[in-house]
Amino acid sequence: MPKELLINATSSEIRIAVMEDGQVAELFVERRKNRGIVGNIYKGRVTKVLPGMQSAFVDVGLDKDAFLYVADVSEDLEEYESFGGWGEETPGDDGGEAAEGAGRSKKGPQPSIDELLRESQEILIQVVKETISGKGARITTHVTLPGRYLVYMPSVRHVGVSRRIENEEERERLKKVLTDLAAGKKGGGGFIVRTAGEGKGEDEFAADKKYLTRLWDQIRKKSEKAGAPSLVHRDLDLVLRVVRDVFTADFATLWVDDVEEYQRIVEFLDQIQPDRVGRVRLYRKRFPIFEEFAVESEIEKALRPKVWLKSGGYIVVNQTEALVAIDVNTGKFVGKKRLEDTVFKTNLEAVREVVRQLRLRDLGGIIVVDFIDMEEEENRQAVTAALEEELKKDRSKTKVLGLSEFGLVEITRKRTKPSLERTLTRGCPYCDGTGRIKTDETICSEIRREIMKIPDVPPGQELLVRVHPDVFKALHGTEAGLLEAIEEQLSITILLKADEALHHEQFDVARL
Question: Given this model, what pLDDT does residue 101 score?
Fold first, then answer.
C-alpha cells in the first residue's frame, strides 16, 4: 500500500501520523502552547563552565539553562564570538541527512571546555535536543540550516550526500555538482544533499544555496544586534517541518482536516515542491480523521507494554530512565514442526514489529532487544540481517550491535525529543511512576505498625481505622487475626470502616 500522511489539527494540538502498509509507522504530537524548540537558534550567555564535566550551561531564555558539551563547541568560537560557530549536521529528526565525512576538522587534541568558553560570554547556539526528563535542552554552536534540497554548513568546507541516496553514480554526480557550486562561494561553507535532492540539477541547488546563504546572513546580522538571551531564528512549526522533511516523493497522499492548515501546506509546497501540491487533500468528513484511519486505537496500544504479533507471539516494551528493554515471546504460537523453526519464525516476525514500535513510540537512547534463543547460526544471522534491513526505514540515526550468544541485540537510536509515552502520560501520583501498588498484606502490616506507634494508649481505648474496601475485606478475611492480636495485646477496641474515597494504599487511625 502507498504511504500516506495524516494531519489532525485542533486549537490546542497538532497530531501527525505516517501511514505505511496501512499501519501507523510514526506519530508526531505537539501542543500549541508548548511548541518544540529543536532547530531554533538563540543568542545565549554562558552561566557555568564545568571543566570536570567538559561541558557548560548556557542561558538562552528557557525555563532551564541549556547544556553544551565540549564536542559541540566550535574551536573558532572566539573569532566569531558575536555570532557563534557553525554546523556539521541538520539538527532534529531529519532522517539521516548527515553525510560521511562531515564534521569537525581534526586539528589535534580536543581543547578543554574552559579554553573555548568563559562565563558571561555571549554565543550563538542551535537546539539539537528538546528538554527531556527535566534536563535542559541540548545545544550546539555548530549551526546548520536545512533547505529544500540542501543542508548548509556556513564554515565547514565539506560536500556530502545523504546516506539514503544509495546509487553510487548518482552520489558521484551530486558531489561534483555541489563541489562546483561551493567553489564559487566566497568565505567557504559546505553543503549536504538531502534525500529530496536525488535527481535534481544545478539550477535547483543554486536556488537553494542562494536562499540558505541569504538566510544565514540575516541570522548573523540579527544576532549582532540582539541581546542575550534571545531567540534569533525560529525553525518551521511542526506541520511545515514534517511537510518539508517527511512528505517525500514516495507518499501518495497528504490528508489534513483543517482548512487553514490545508491552505498553509498548499502555499508552502507551491514554493518548495510544486509537483506535490496535487497530492494534498482536505479531509471533509465529520467522523474524526484519526478514527477513520484507525490511528486512535494504535495510539492506545502504543501506551501499553504488550504488543501482540499475528502468529500469537508478542513483544513487551519497557521504557526506563537508563534504557529501553524489549522482550520477545512465543506466547500462543506453538508452531508445527521443530522448536527451532517456531522460535526463528517468531523472531523474524518480531523484528518488523520491534522497529515499528521504535518509530511509533519514538524510543531513543540504548535499546536492548531480547530475542528468543536460537541454536542455528544461520538463523541468528538471518534475524540480525532482517533487523538491519528493517531499520533502514527509520529516519532517525541508528546503530546495531550483533546478536549475542544469549539472544540480545543492542541498538542505539538518536533521541531529540521525549518519547510518545512521555509526551502523552505522566508518572502515577499513587505509585510515583513505578506502575505497581502495595499488596493488601503489606498495607495490613503497615496498619499494625502505625497503631503500635501511638503513644500512651490507655486500656479500653477505642481506635477508628479507615481503610480502602479491598483492605477492609482482607482484615475480615485472610488478615483477620492481625487486629485481634493487637486488641488483645493493648487491651483496646479497634473499629474498622471501609471508605471508597481512600486510595488503595491510604489509611488513617484516630482515637475515639
Answer: 39
Residue 358 is classified by DSSP as H
pLDDT in tens, 306-355: 999 998 999 999 988 889 999 999 888 776 778 888 899 999 999 999 99
Closest CA to 244 of 199, 210, 208: 208
Tell me the C-alpha to C-alpha distance, in Å, between residue 33 and each of 11, 14, 36, 261, 362. Answer: 10, 11, 10, 17, 21
What are 314's strand-pairing partners? Answer: 308, 329
- CB atoms under 10 Å from CB of 249, counted, come to 13
If DSSP codes are grouped into helix, strand and coil, which group holds residue 192?
Answer: strand
- Local confidence band at 82 (pLDDT 50, 70, 90 cut-offs): very low
CA dist 25 and 3 (Å) reads: 10
Q: To the nearest whole number, what is the mean pLDDT of the chain?
A: 86
Q: Please report which helix (H) or strand (E) contains residue 482, including its range.
A: helix 480-490
Residue carrying the nine cell digits 490545508? 262
d(CA 461, CA 511): 7
Q: Measure Cα distances from 274 to 181, 267, 269 in Å.
A: 24, 9, 5
Instruction: Domains for the chain: give ranges and CATH numbers.
Output: 3-34+239-295 (3.30.420.60), 44-107+114-231 (no CATH), 304-424 (no CATH), 440-511 (3.40.1260.20)
Per-residue HEC secondary structure of 392-454 comes to: HHCCCCEEECCCCCCCEEEEEECCCCCCHHHHHCCCCCCCCCCCCCCCHHHHHHHHHHHHHCC
pLDDT digit string (tens) for 92-115?
A: 444 445 444 344 444 567 789 988
Cβ atoms of 114 and 14 within 8 Å: the answer is: no
Of the chain, the percentage scoring pLDDT greater than 90 comes to 47
Residue 304: CB partners within 8 Å, gap ≥ 6?
A: none
* DSSP type of residue 318: E
Bridge partners for 281 per DSSP = 255
Instruction: Summarize pLDDT for 267-285 with one digit per residue, the tens.
Output: 999 988 888 999 999 999 8
